[in-house]
Structures are given as structure tokens and as C-alpha cells.
């Protein structure tokens, strides 16, 4: 395992909690084949300005992987903070370490990360970037609407589709979306046609095929994405 650790990280080390093997919630047979990943640039934006390149990947349809990750557990210790500003708890920090390495071992490493701008989501990503280099190499956009849309009934799945198609170039094969319940659970369930439960720091692994992300969403529709598994910290 080629983990990258920061020398002065305030977080616990992975060896304190990381299990010797990876267990997935058994929802379907799991494929360990990982697509080749071009090196992505690291980019942070505070809004949704801009759009994905019009470049297309030539040839046949390719497998598109979508990681839907709910933020790690947050702390309620400081009741004066707005919900948006609550940080991670110590358990949440430890869970983020574990899940980052599980995703690395399974080969589900994103080239593009689309994340809520809430503090707990930013901190979850920061820990993952400290632990695994590929999360640091990925292109990152913080999407403010991810925080608010997750609280609305029945709107998250369509919103995710719009944002992914806006930012994901056709050559990008793995995208990770980081956000909140109830929207993340609801969207994963709608996309796969399965009842998906996402506790804190759980990641649903979805697959569809298409020559582009737009085509993958069009062909799979709601209910057509394949749920390959759910990664959990335990």
C-alpha cells in the first residue's frame, strides 16, 4: 500500500485503527479492476463557475465510477457553531483515515472530487488527502449547493447529475461526490434502484457505462446504476 502520511499531521496515524483486510457491505459481487488514471491537477474553487471541457473520449463506452461519500462524524461540542461550521469529532477523524485507505486498496480513486463546502466535509477531504496521494492529485471543486440541496426531498440525484456533467471531462472515469444526508442516501438509492443506507463516512460505489458522463446518466437513468458495494470504516 503506497500511503502518503504527513509528518506533522494532527490526526491519528492509520496504523492505530486500520484493519488488515477490507470488508464491504455485501450488496453485490465486487469488481477490483481499476481503470487507468491520468494524473489530475489539484484545484480548489469556491463556486460552480465554469464547465467541463467539450473533449470526448473516442471509441467504445467505458465504465464510469461514482463514489458517493457522506462526510465523517461531526462534533456537537460547541453548540454556538452554525451547523455548516461544525468540525469533525475525533472518531470522525479516525474514520476518514480508514476509509481513505480502503478506497485506495479497492482501486476506487477519483480523478475529480466534488464536495460540499461545509467544514465537516472539507475536513474529511483534507484528512483523506493527507493519507493518500491520489486524493491530493485529484481536481477538487467545492460546491456550496451540495450543503443545501441535501436537505430537500427528491432533488439531490438530479442536482448531482447536473454538477457531475458540468465539471467531469469525458476522459475522467472516477468521480467522488462528498456531501450530506438525507440527500446522499436518497440519491444513491434513486440512482441504483436499491435501498442504500449511508452512515457517516460511508461510501457507496456506483458504476455505469457510457462514452461520456452525460451518456452514462442518460443510458442508466434512475435505477440503472450498479451498486458495487458500500465502504464503511468498520
Automatic annotation (TrEMBL):
- What InterPro entries does the entry give? His_Pase_superF_clade-1 (IPR013078), His_PPase_superfam (IPR029033)
**Where along the chain is substrate bound?**
120
Q: Which PANTHER family match?
A: OS09G0287300 PROTEIN (PTHR47623:SF1)
Q: Where is this region: Disordered?
A: 43-63
Biased composition regions of type Low complexity, renumbered to the chain: 49-61
Biological source species: Nepenthes gracilis (Slender pitcher plant)
> What name does the UniProt record give this protein?
Uncharacterized protein
Any single Pfam family the record assigns to this protein: His_Phos_1
UniProt xrefs under CDD domains: HP_PGM_like
Amino acid at each position: 500500500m503506497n500511503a502518503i502520511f504527513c509528518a506533522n499531521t494532527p490526526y491519528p496515524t492509520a496504523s492505530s485503527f486500520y484493519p488488515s483486510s477490507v470488508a464491504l457491505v455485501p450488496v453485490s459481487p465486487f469488481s477490483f479492476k481499476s481503470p487507468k488514471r491520468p494524473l489530475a491537477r489539484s484545484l480548489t474553487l469556491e463556486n460552480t463557475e465554469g464547465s467541463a471541457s467539450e473533449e470526448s473520449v473516442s471509441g467504445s463506452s467505458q465504465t464510469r465510477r461514482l463514489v458517493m461519500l457522506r462526510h465523517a462524524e461531526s462534533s456537537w461540542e460547541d453548540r454556538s457553531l452554525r451547523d455548516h461550521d461544525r468540525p469533525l469529532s475525533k472518531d470522525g477523524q479516525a474514520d476518514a483515515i480508514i476509509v481513505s485507505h480502503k478506497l485506495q486498496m479497492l482501486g476506487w480513486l477519483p480523478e475529480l472530487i466534488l464536495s460540499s463546502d461545509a467544514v465537516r466535509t472539507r475536513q474529511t477531504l483534507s484528512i483523506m488527502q493527507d493519507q493518500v496521494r491520489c486524493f491530493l492529485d485529484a481536481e477538487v471543486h467545492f460546491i456550496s449547493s451540495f450543503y443545501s440541496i441535501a436537505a430537500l426531498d427528491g432533488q439531490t440525484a438530479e442536482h448531482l447529475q447536473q454538477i457531475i456533467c458540468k465539471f467531469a471531462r469525458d476522459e475522467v472515469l472516477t468521480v467522488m461526490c462528498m456531501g450530506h444526508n438525507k440527500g446522499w442516501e436518497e440519491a444513491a438509492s434513486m440512482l441504483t434502484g436499491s435501498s442504500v443506507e449511508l452512515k457517516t463516512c460511508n461510501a457507496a460505489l456506483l458504476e455505469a457505462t457510457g462514452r461520456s458522463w452525460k451518456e452514462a446518466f442518460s443510458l442508466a437513468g434512475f435505477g440503472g446504476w450498479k451498486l458495487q458495494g458500500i465502504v464503511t470504516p468498520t
